[in-house]
Amino acid sequence: MDRRSLIVAGTAAVASALPRGAAASSDSPAAPASLGIAGLGLPVIEGGRLRNYVFVALRLELGAGKTLEQIKPKEAFFRDALVKAAHRTPFTVPGDWTRLDERALSAALVSASAGISGRGSIRRVVVVSQTPRRRTGLPTPR
Length: 142
Hints:
By secondary structure, the chain is of the alpha+beta class. It contains five helices and five strands.
Protein backbone atom coordinates (compact mmCIF):
# COMPACT_ATOMS: atom_id res chain seq x y z
CA MET A 1 0.00 0.00 0.00
CA ASP A 2 1.45 3.38 -0.91
CA ARG A 3 1.33 6.60 1.09
CA ARG A 4 -1.47 8.16 -0.97
CA SER A 5 -3.80 5.23 -0.32
CA LEU A 6 -3.13 5.42 3.42
CA ILE A 7 -3.96 9.15 3.53
CA VAL A 8 -7.19 8.67 1.57
CA ALA A 9 -8.23 5.75 3.78
CA GLY A 10 -7.45 7.70 6.97
CA THR A 11 -9.36 10.76 5.78
CA ALA A 12 -12.38 8.66 4.88
CA ALA A 13 -12.32 6.99 8.30
CA VAL A 14 -12.19 10.33 10.12
CA ALA A 15 -14.99 11.79 7.97
CA SER A 16 -17.24 8.82 8.66
CA ALA A 17 -16.58 9.08 12.42
CA LEU A 18 -17.71 12.72 12.57
CA PRO A 19 -21.32 13.38 13.58
CA ARG A 20 -23.59 14.57 10.79
CA GLY A 21 -23.95 18.04 12.34
CA ALA A 22 -20.20 18.65 12.17
CA ALA A 23 -20.08 17.92 8.45
CA ALA A 24 -23.11 20.12 7.78
CA SER A 25 -21.74 23.04 9.79
CA SER A 26 -18.91 23.54 7.32
CA ASP A 27 -21.51 24.30 4.63
CA SER A 28 -23.39 26.87 6.74
CA PRO A 29 -22.63 30.58 6.35
CA ALA A 30 -19.73 31.90 8.42
CA ALA A 31 -20.15 34.11 11.46
CA PRO A 32 -20.17 37.84 10.71
CA ALA A 33 -16.81 39.55 10.59
CA SER A 34 -15.83 41.37 13.76
CA LEU A 35 -13.25 43.85 14.97
CA GLY A 36 -11.79 43.58 18.46
CA ILE A 37 -11.03 46.65 20.55
CA ALA A 38 -9.17 45.99 23.80
CA GLY A 39 -7.79 48.05 26.67
CA LEU A 40 -10.13 51.01 26.47
CA GLY A 41 -10.35 52.88 29.80
CA LEU A 42 -13.72 54.52 30.44
CA PRO A 43 -14.60 56.68 33.44
CA VAL A 44 -17.17 55.93 36.13
CA ILE A 45 -18.64 59.30 37.14
CA GLU A 46 -21.19 59.60 39.90
CA GLY A 47 -22.41 62.77 41.56
CA GLY A 48 -20.28 64.86 39.23
CA ARG A 49 -17.06 63.22 40.50
CA LEU A 50 -14.73 60.73 38.90
CA ARG A 51 -15.02 57.57 40.99
CA ASN A 52 -13.18 54.89 39.01
CA TYR A 53 -12.05 53.71 35.60
CA VAL A 54 -13.22 50.50 33.97
CA PHE A 55 -11.13 48.96 31.22
CA VAL A 56 -13.26 47.25 28.59
CA ALA A 57 -12.63 44.89 25.72
CA LEU A 58 -15.17 45.09 22.89
CA ARG A 59 -16.05 43.15 19.78
CA LEU A 60 -17.72 45.09 16.97
CA GLU A 61 -19.75 42.87 14.67
CA LEU A 62 -19.72 44.35 11.19
CA GLY A 63 -22.85 45.01 9.19
CA ALA A 64 -23.77 43.50 5.86
CA GLY A 65 -21.46 44.45 3.03
CA LYS A 66 -18.65 45.68 5.29
CA THR A 67 -15.28 43.97 5.49
CA LEU A 68 -12.62 44.02 8.14
CA GLU A 69 -10.26 45.76 5.70
CA GLN A 70 -12.72 48.67 5.40
CA ILE A 71 -13.32 49.09 9.15
CA LYS A 72 -9.89 48.30 10.68
CA PRO A 73 -8.30 51.66 9.68
CA LYS A 74 -11.11 53.47 11.54
CA GLU A 75 -10.50 51.74 14.89
CA ALA A 76 -8.99 54.91 16.38
CA PHE A 77 -12.12 56.87 15.46
CA PHE A 78 -14.31 54.29 17.22
CA ARG A 79 -12.12 54.50 20.33
CA ASP A 80 -12.25 58.30 20.29
CA ALA A 81 -16.02 58.40 19.84
CA LEU A 82 -16.57 56.00 22.74
CA VAL A 83 -14.28 57.90 25.12
CA LYS A 84 -15.97 61.19 24.24
CA ALA A 85 -19.42 59.67 24.75
CA ALA A 86 -18.35 58.18 28.11
CA HIS A 87 -17.24 61.61 29.35
CA ARG A 88 -20.33 63.38 28.00
CA THR A 89 -22.91 60.97 29.44
CA PRO A 90 -21.22 58.35 31.64
CA PHE A 91 -22.20 54.70 31.29
CA THR A 92 -22.34 54.36 35.07
CA VAL A 93 -24.43 51.65 36.73
CA PRO A 94 -26.10 53.30 39.76
CA GLY A 95 -24.59 52.07 43.02
CA ASP A 96 -21.76 50.12 41.38
CA TRP A 97 -18.43 51.73 40.51
CA THR A 98 -16.93 48.56 39.04
CA ARG A 99 -19.20 48.06 36.02
CA LEU A 100 -20.51 50.00 33.05
CA ASP A 101 -23.95 49.86 31.45
CA GLU A 102 -23.39 47.58 28.45
CA ARG A 103 -26.59 48.58 26.65
CA ALA A 104 -25.85 52.31 26.82
CA LEU A 105 -22.25 51.72 25.74
CA SER A 106 -23.38 49.60 22.79
CA ALA A 107 -26.05 52.08 21.71
CA ALA A 108 -23.60 55.00 21.84
CA LEU A 109 -21.03 53.21 19.70
CA VAL A 110 -23.56 51.96 17.13
CA SER A 111 -24.97 55.48 16.71
CA ALA A 112 -21.46 56.97 16.44
CA SER A 113 -20.53 54.41 13.79
CA ALA A 114 -23.03 55.97 11.38
CA GLY A 115 -20.90 59.10 11.20
CA ILE A 116 -17.57 57.27 11.18
CA SER A 117 -18.00 54.57 8.59
CA GLY A 118 -21.56 54.83 7.31
CA ARG A 119 -24.98 53.75 8.43
CA GLY A 120 -25.22 50.03 9.21
CA SER A 121 -21.48 49.45 9.32
CA ILE A 122 -21.62 48.15 12.91
CA ARG A 123 -24.41 45.69 13.53
CA ARG A 124 -23.78 44.96 17.20
CA VAL A 125 -21.30 45.71 19.98
CA VAL A 126 -20.43 42.95 22.43
CA VAL A 127 -18.67 43.81 25.69
CA VAL A 128 -16.20 40.96 26.10
CA SER A 129 -14.81 41.98 29.49
CA GLN A 130 -14.87 44.75 32.09
CA THR A 131 -11.99 45.20 34.53
CA PRO A 132 -12.23 47.98 37.14
CA ARG A 133 -9.10 49.88 38.13
CA ARG A 134 -10.09 50.02 41.80
CA ARG A 135 -12.15 47.49 43.67
CA THR A 136 -11.95 49.22 47.06
CA GLY A 137 -13.60 52.38 48.31
CA LEU A 138 -16.88 51.49 46.66
CA PRO A 139 -20.23 52.91 47.77
CA THR A 140 -21.95 51.06 50.59
CA PRO A 141 -25.29 49.42 49.76
CA ARG A 142 -28.28 51.11 51.34
